[in-house]
């Protein structure tokens, strides 16, 4: 398993992380034996980063991950979890953040996590359940820092969704050590310039900002919530198609565009579209680790096999770029 240095943290993380989210559903609604066997398999393959959140199954993901890791007792793994603040807690951010992490630690059966991520979207002035830049830097960061000083987390992170300019400002403040960033074959704008009038949110070369600030990057939505499998079929324990983040305005539109990338498979660059998507994410050196959701142990094996083939070759990246040019000007 390839290991990459994660920003300024000094941690070396496996390029394939273990996503415990609700989209795939294995760690939320899966069979406990399947959960333990898949985690054991991941550990044996060299995976050392496990990512969860209290929102995944209202704590079920954290409970199941905590149970499995306590049983397997791996020597050296990194665990990340998240807090999403409801609007009703915006007047008591410090208390709400502390309560959330304490609950997560209890469910995870750990004294601390390695990365504690803010899960709210970030915009210039806030609104709804999005936090403003001022709230993040003036209230969330000091609360997170107190938790770090108390030994409850090693590093501070954010989920880089919201307004692009606001994300650039927060990352540029160098208060966070980790950013979970959308990066996939439908929307590579965190790492590359998009064609004019491209139907996706433009993250404005976000990786230039994370690199300058020494922030480690966790690649998320690598499969665009499942659309980059090219199949509309979903496993019984998977969530319904998720609301897209940063790509088209509907999952169906993402799925249609994903299928237009099938020449990558037909021309022999990858065995499946999901393999191409996984290897694409690894092709950017700014990525520290990627998260691929799963519903079954076999889906973990598929992700592992893709990672073991390494990044896509330059010819495949060129072909992908040419295919993506056709999306320019289409309705998002």
Describe what you observe in this structure.
The chain is 39% helix and 15% strand. The chain has helices at residues 26-29, 32-45, 60-72, 93-108, 133-149, 164-172, 206-213, 251-259, 263-266, 273-282, 297-308, 314-325; strands at residues 3-5, 12-14, 16-19, 49-51, 78-83, 113-118, 122-123, 131-132, 153-159, 178-182, 216-220, 289-292. Helix 2 (32-45) crosses helix 3, helix 6 packs parallel to helix 7 and helix 10 packs across helix 11 (297-308). It is globular and about 55 Å long. It is α/β, with parallel strands linked by helices and 332 residues long. 51% of the residues are buried. It contains twelve helices and twelve strands. Helix 3 links the parallel strand 4 and strand 5 (78-83).
Structure, briefly:
By secondary structure, the protein is an alpha/beta fold. It has helices at residues 26-29, 32-45, 60-72, 93-108, 133-149, 164-172, 206-213, 251-259, 263-266, 273-282, 297-308, 314-325; strands spanning 3-5, 12-14, 16-19, 49-51, 78-83, 113-118, 122-123, 131-132, 153-159, 178-182, 216-220, 289-292. It is globular and about 55 Å long.
